[in-house]
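User: Quick one: structure for sequence A, then sequence B.

Assistant: Sequence A:
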Amino acid sequence: KNLSSYTRKADILITATGVKWLIKGDDVKNGCIIIDAGIKKEGEKIYGDVHESALKKARAFTPVPGGVGPVTISCMLENSLIAYKKLHKRI
C-alpha cells in the first residue's frame, strides 16, 4: 500500500508499470540501480516509470527510451525461434 516504503530500501529497483513518473526522488535511496522497463506514450513523447529526480540519485540506470527495449525485442525473437523449432519437430 505504501510503495515508497519498499522502494527506499531497494539496492536494485526494477519497474515495468507504464505509469509515467511513478517513482520519484524521494522514493529511492542514493546509489541504487534502477532498471526502468515501463513506457508511457503521450503524444509524440515517451516517458518511463521513473522521474529524473530519482535517476539523479541512482548509481546506474536504464534510460527511457533506449534502455531495455532492444533486450526485450531480442528475447522475443529468440523465443519465437524456439517455438518455431518445437512446432516443426512435431510435424
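Sequence B:
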Amino acid sequence: MSKRALSKAKNTYSAKDIEVLEGIDPVRKRPGMYIGSVDKDGLHHLFTEVLDNAMDEVIAGFANSIKINLSKNQIITIHDNGRGIPVDPHPKFKTKSALEVILTTLHTGGKFNEKVYKTAGGLHGVGISVVNALSDYFSVEVVRDGFLWSQEYCRGKAKTKLTKRKHNGKGSGTTISFHPDPEIFKNEIAFLPDRLYQIAHSKCFLFPKVKIEWSCDSVLVKKKQSNNRSTPSKTKIHYPGGILEYANQRLGTENQIMEPFYGKVKLPDDHGTIEWVISWLENSNTKLLFKDSF
C-alpha cells in the first residue's frame, strides 16, 4: 500500500468512522475473541459453556443431576436440577427480567459475587450470552417457586416474551436448548457425540457427587470412535470414586506396580480443592495425563 493511500485513510478518520457495538453484537462480529475459533473447537466450546453453568450449580451444592441430549438435527439440550436462573425484574434494567439480562448482556451473572458462587467455570458473566448470540435457535426453561418460565431467542435477540405458567412438578432447575448458527459456523454444524460424551465424563470424574444422564440420537452414534471406544446412545454417568476411579479405569489395575498415590487438599477460605493421583506402571511407555478445574 502506498504512503498516499495511508495518508488518505488517516485524513478521513473521524467520529463517524467509530463503530459502536452494543449488547452482544461484538460476539457475532468477532466470535473468535469469545470462543477461540469458529471451527469444531469453537462449536464444542458452546456445549462446554452451557454444561459448566449446570456444573456450577452442582459445585455450589444446589444440584446433583444433569441431563444432556443431542438430537438428530444438532440441537443440544442441557438440564440441571439447580435453583433455576432468576426471573424477577433486574434492578438496573427494570423492563427486563434477570433471565433476559443474563442471556443478552455481556458481563452479567451471579459469578462475580462470592456470596452466590464460591467457584465457577466457563467465561464468568459471558458464556451463556455468547452461546445465545451464536445460535440461530436458543430456548430456556426455568422452574422456580412452583412456576415454569420459558422464552425463545434467535441470534441473541428475544423471539418471544417470557411466559409463565403453573408447574405441577416439584423442585427447580434450568433447561437450555440451542442450535449453533450456520451463518457463524458455516459447514461445521456437526457435533461429535464422542467428544461431548468424554467432556461429560470428565465433569463426573472431577466431581463425584454429580450424576449425568446422557442421550444422543442413535443415528449420530458411530459404532467405533477415534479412540476405539464406543459411545452409547443412552446411559448414566456417575463416578463416586472420582479421579482415582478414572485412573484405575484408564490404566487397568493389572498394569500398576503398586496402589496409586492419591491425595486431596482443601484450600483455605473455601477457595477450592486440589486432588491428585500418581501411579507407577510396568510399561514405562504408558502415559496418562488428565487435568481440569472448576
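Residues 1-9 have pLDDT under 50 and may be disordered. The chain is about 25% helix and 20% strand.

User: Thanks, that's what I needed.
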